[in-house]
Amino acid sequence: MPSVRTRIAVGLCGLALGLGLPAGVQPARAAEWATCKFFSQLPDDCARAEQKKYDNLRDSRYVEIDLYAKDALKKLLYVSIYNTTGLNGADDSRDSAPKALVQTLDPKRIAKKYQALVVSITPPRYWTLDWFADRVGAVRSFDGLDAAWMGNSQAPQSRISAKPPPDAYRYIPVARTSIEGIKKGSQVYLLDDPKSRTWVMRSYTNKDIPGLTIDKLETLGDLLKLPPGWKFRAAVLTKDLVLESKGGYSASTQDDKGNVYDLTGPGQSNFVP
Question: Residue range 237-254: average pLDDT?
Answer without folding.
Answer: 93
